[in-house]
Design brief:
Elements lengths: L1 E4 L5 H12 L5 E3 L11 H6 L7 E4 L2 E4 L1 H12 L9 H30 L8 H21 L14 H15 L8 H11 L14
Parallel strand pairs: 1-2
Antiparallel strand pairs: 1-3, 3-4
Helix pairs in contact: 1-3, 1-6, 4-5, 4-6
The protein binds glutathione.
The site of glutathione has 12 residues, from helix 1 and helix 3.
Length: 207
């Protein structure tokens, strides 16, 4: 029995759910976090002492940190597909999970919090503008990266890198911000977000 804990409007839960669906796994998802609460309950903290979502329970094997969950699911159930077995090929996919978590995510964080979670009269417009500028610079890097004709981030097939970055770019397209023209990124986003496994996972209202 597999359980993923977390509301689907969370980018980090979306990654885990998309990976599980892409791998064709049977799982139950339990809504916690955000309006559902429950993250400070002792039972939840026993699973995830961070009090954050997502948490994975794979038949008693408990794991938290969304990108670690994506890597685990892919390695355990998707060797040769989502999880390239050649270490060099895998590295070219895997780096995008770190790029999302340590570069793009932190760059866009203040814009997301400011525009989605902060009342208009309390917004720090300068911090939002700086965040959007940092994020858009990274977006242009991604656009340039796609210019060699690759279909997916690690080459010709869909891998874990497309999941982590796909969830982040999906939200970038939904944010009420000025965006530079990125035709290749838009095509890649269309390619990954129309996969059956992404239906009902991407395109969530920003919360
Ligand atoms: N580094 C963690 C971050 C987890 C995180 O910050 N999750 C957010 C949702 S995206 C959360 O738990 N927020 C509290 C809530 O939803 O109530 C991961 O990638 O799993």
């Amino acid at each position: 029995m597999m359980t993923i804990w977390g509301r689907l409007t969370s980018i980090n839960v979306a990654k885990a759910v998309w990976a599980a669906r892409e791998l064709g796994l049977q799982f139950e998802r339990i809504d916690v976090g955000g309006p559902y609460g429950g993250l400070d309950k002792p039972e939840y903290l026993a699973l995830n002492p961070n009090g954050k979502i997502p948490t994975l329970d794979d038949n008693g094997y408990i794991l938290w940190e969304s990108n670690s969950i994506v890597r685990y699911l892919a390695a355990q159930y998707g060797a040769g597909t989502l999880w390239p077995t050649d270490p060099r090929e895998r590295g070219l996919s895997d780096r995008w999970l770190d790029w999302q978590a340590t570069e793009f995510g932190p760059a866009m964080g203040p814009a997301f919090i400011g525009l989605i979670r902060t009342p208009e009269d309390k917004r720090n417009h300068q911090a939002i503008a700086e965040s959007v500028a940092r994020g858009n610079k990274l977006i242009l890097l991604l656009e340039k990266f796609l210019a060699d004709g690759r279909q997916y981030l690690a080459g010709d097939r869909f891998t874990i890198g497309d999941i982590a970055v796909g969830c982040a770019i999906d939200r970038w397209f939904l944010l009420p911000i000025e965006r530079p023209a990125t035709p290749l990124l838009a095509q890649w986003h269309e390619r990954v977000s129309t996969r059956p496994s992404a239906q009902g996972v991407l395109g969530q209202e920003l919360k």
